[in-house]
Amino acid sequence: MMAELGGGVRPIAGGSDLVVNMRRGTVAPEHVLSLGRIKELCVINLSGRELTIGACCTVASLAESSVIASQWHALHEGALSLGSPLVRNLATAGGNLVTARPAADLPPPLMAHGASVALQSSQGLRVVSLDRFFLGPGRTVMKPAEILTGIVLETPPAFSGSSYIKLGTRRALEISIVSVASYLTLEKPGGRIRSARIVLGAVAPVPIRAVNAEKTLIGEIPSGPLFAKAGGTAAGESKPIDDHRGTAGYRKDMVSVLTRKTLQAALERANSNKGE
Amino acid sequence: MKKTIHITVNQKPIELEVQPNQTLLEVIRETLGLTGTKAGCLVGDCGACTVLLDKRPVNSCLVLAVQADGKQVTTIEGLETPQGLHPLQTAFVDKGAIQCGYCTPGMILSAKSLLGRNPRADEAEIRKAISGNLCRCTGYQKIVEAILFASRTSP
What we know:
- The structure holds two protein chains of two kinds.
- By secondary structure, chain A is α+β, with helices and mostly antiparallel strands.
- Chain A has eleven helices and 13 strands.
- In chain A, helix 2 links the parallel strand 1 and strand 2.
- In chain A, helix 9 runs antiparallel to helix 10 and helix 10 packs across helix 11.
- Chain B has two domains: 76 residues, Ubiquitin-like (UB roll); 67 residues, Orthogonal Bundle (DNA polymerase, domain 1), CATH 1.10.150.120.
- Chain B contains five helices and five strands.
- The radius of gyration of chain B is 15 Å and the shape is globular.
- Chain B starts with a strand and ends with a helix.
- Chain B has a five-stranded mixed sheet, with helices on one face.
- In chain B, helix 2 crosses helix 5.
- Classes of the chains: A alpha+beta, B alpha+beta.
- The interface between A and B is medium-sized, with 22 and 27 residues.
């Protein structure tokens, strides 16, 4: 249907973004194609070590999923911090990605968990790492006839933990000033850091990996000073702007603080997570 | 180009012809005349337009009417029974939780959904559940007290 209707068609899932933009007149599609009734797109499925989240799963269903809460802590926290309870009942996992807003709440945790997305068109299916999915505000690598059908995640190995913190001035209906998601895997409880991912939201045109900060952690024994050093490095890697939500300088300082705090929370979870 | 939809509004099945770009809010207020549901910000921020869609509270300004096809909608008008007001409605009146009244239908529907899932919700859970509903009179304390009262006294 996407191919038949050509360029004037916009897929709709929850509609919490598209309906607002249609009312504002910033988008005026000739056709709106609902994905909401495709049952396969509304399922969270753990098969072996692979977790698949259908694009049309609501953010509320992610926040309520005991499977996600047990192993994918950052994603659980990201889902709980998005919008309001009312919006979470409409907004979908796929929608929060394809809209490509720099301050969106799901991309940083999903990238911290190493997620990929499945992109389907009548021409076929391709799987793209979320690290390479976003091109700029509102822009992704998706082709016009493609639909994002799902998100794929690997179960974290034993002694892994993650955390997401969103900084805002209120607890609901907030657009992040800064957000950070961190993920750690340890060699053993109390042991060295085997792998690390740190993702920064709202401080660049797209959510970004703080790769140099990640490098400072690998092979090291976790400690407060080490996490503070990683925070400083992450702040240096961020490229924030001044706007009404905060100045660039404030945002850089907060990247440092949130990186340290999310790493600490991820560490505590990693130490107590023995895998399944 | 109108579309036919079948929705159940306050337990009554209805067939409607709607424009594809009409929101559920517009259909509820203008076509069905159920003006208890309020139009506020129209961008999903204020919660004045809250209705229950398949028992879950949503901003009806963000839902296209065609998306509600086949679903159950509950508006504030659906809470009263021949026996009288819903216990939450009574609690809002008795506890002084209504000031200008604009946020009240949304507040009550968010609270109803919460108590449906969690009949003994505590204050923190109540505050979280109504965090998508804004009260410009800032009467939150009385609203929370009313919902707490309803949760403690419900059978």
